[in-house]
Amino acid sequence: MKCHRAVWLASYGRDHTLSEQERAALEAHLGSCPACRQRQAAYSRLVNALSAQQEPEPAADLLQKAIRQAQETVVESSPANGRTAQRVRLALALVVLVVLVGTRLPQAFGQSVLQKMEAAVGQARTMHVVSWEFLMTEEEARNHTWHDGKTPVRTETWVTHDAISGRDDLMGPYLWNATGYLHYDPTERKMKYLQFAGREVSLKDTIERSFNPVAEMKSAVTPGTYLSLHNFADAVWQGRKVHKLQIASGPDKPKAGEEVPTTQEPGRTPPPGAAPRMRRTFWIDRETNLPVHAEYEKEIQGRWVVQTRSDYDYNLQTPARLFDPEAIRKDAEAHAARRH
Fold this sequence. Notes:
The structure is a single chain. The chain has two domains: 3-101, no CATH class; 109-314, outer membrane lipoprotein receptor (LolB), chain A, CATH 2.50.20. It has helices at 3-12, 20-32, 34-51, 62-77, 83-101, 107-123, 138-143, 203-210, 215-220, 325-339, and strands at residues 127-133, 153-159, 164-168, 172-177, 180-185, 190-194, 226-237, 240-250, 278-285, 291-300, 303-314. The chain contains ten helices and eleven strands. Helix 2 crosses helix 3. The protein has an eleven-stranded antiparallel β-sheet. The model is unreliable at 74-81 and 96-105 (pLDDT under 50). It is α+β, with helices and mostly antiparallel strands.
């Protein structure tokens, strides 16, 4: 494992649950890399010290003292000279500054970012999504349990305002257009159009939800459950400057400015067997207001478990072949032949 990958996993693991393979690989790297081990220990001490602080309004000189202390701390564990030490001192000073003023930005700003994201996605011409889904087994779904170490299923979806085309590792390609849902029927071993009846599975509604990034969260929340918005400090994702927003469900009414209106009536007792708590985190490009990455999690057995990770692209030219029924038919039959 490369050092940059270890740094990413260590940071990601503070707010998310790593898989058994990821955790084992990170521990192995830390065991063999003194530099990463020292960096991890220094960061842990800093975070633990800051976490122990109460949250009153800071004194006027508190920020300066914290920055000065961070700089002095790094001098002790960094080379005395050189640009590396200067960069590390500056980075830690900025970390302290962000934590002291709050890793969550004002919620009014978060609502503004959310509204801009919804508007930008709604105006997009096309959407391309690549997702990695960690699927539950029937036993896990029945007993509400989860086992780590799953191999994710890759899915790829193209959405226009007229049709949806996609494929996954298990079922192969499909096309959903005005004619119907074209897919390979493994029972009959042939391609066929499946006609859906009912508003809940209409093509129009599915496309509208696809171009509304929080619609699924709004419609899935159970009675008695609220949705709250958390706006975290801006970040960088794969070289892009992004806003980071999280929408989470829960039984408690959110604070002023944090609530996300839902299609369900909040404040009622959830029915037996209600869905578990869930949350979706968005990484939103600061220039386009379009999401570039999202992660969907559920709370299972008292811990948050990643269910889906998705990468997004918008307004790309759609490959004509993916919306050609005959081409989809050939690809699906070839996929089925390989699986049989």
